[in-house]
Design a protein that fits this description.
single chain, about 180 residues, alpha/beta, Rossmann fold, 3-stranded antiparallel β-sheet, 9 strands, about 35% strand, globular, binds inosinic acid, binds magnesium ion
Length: about 180
């Protein structure tokens, strides 16, 4: 795969994140919450989003990995999780780069609800609804994207391109070195 066209420029992202932050801010109306940023892809978006939120917030992280077995799909597994006092009895906003099949966020929702969160909400920068295999919907979302593999602004292709300031579509071609 190689880099195809730019889908969202740095400026597109900046203005959409600002509008999204206003929506999120309105929802919390000054009440505190714990933002759980999903590593690794969600960290750039989280960093930009939370600087525009005005309610008191705690910042925490989670990491989930999927091991795919044949065509049956992967079993999500927790690699890193907030500590109990960061989430129990609190309003929790999970922030991720992209909602694709929905397995990661549906799994995180189940685990966080089990851990006793008071409220569970999600904010994703990108939504690829055509790929969904669960009924998961994000509460706040930035842009809808078609079924193309995207990279940049935190999102990777084979571990690369997370540092690109724009979001690009990948297309079949020569593999990166
Ligand atoms: P889901 O569990 O299928 O919804 O996948 C969510 C995760 O897969 C995201 O947090 C990303 O890390 C990764 N992912 C899904 N689609 C893409 C893509 O187009 N580019 C980069 N990463 C992606
Ligand atoms: Mg991810």
């Amino acid at each position: 795969m190689e880099i195809g066209g730019v889908l969202f420029t740095e400026a597109d992202i900046r203005s959409r994140v600002a509008a999204l932050a206003e929506e999120v801010d309105e929802h919390y109306a000054g009440e505190s919450c714990t933002v759980v940023s999903v590593l690794k892809g969600g960290c750039l978006f989280t960093a930009d989003l939370i600087r525009r939120l005005t309610m008191p917030l705690y910042l925490s992280f989670a990491a989930v990995s999927s091991y795919r077995s044949g065509t049956t799909g992967g079993n999500p597994r927790i690699e890193f999780f907030p500590t109990d006092h960061e989430i129990r009895g609190r309003r929790v906003l999970v922030v991720d780069d992209i909602l694709d099949t929905g397995r990661t966020l549906a799994f995180l929702r189940d685990v966080l609800v089990e851990a006793g969160v008071k409220e569970f909400k999600t904010c994703v920068l990108l939504d690829k609804p055509s790929r969904r295999i669960t009924d998961f919907q994000a509460d706040f979302r930035g842009f809808e994207v078609p079924d193309v593999f995207v990279a940049g602004y935190g999102l990777d292709y084979a571990g690369r391109y997370r540092n690109l300031p724009d979001i690009v579509g990948m297309r079949p071609g020569i593999s990166p070195q």
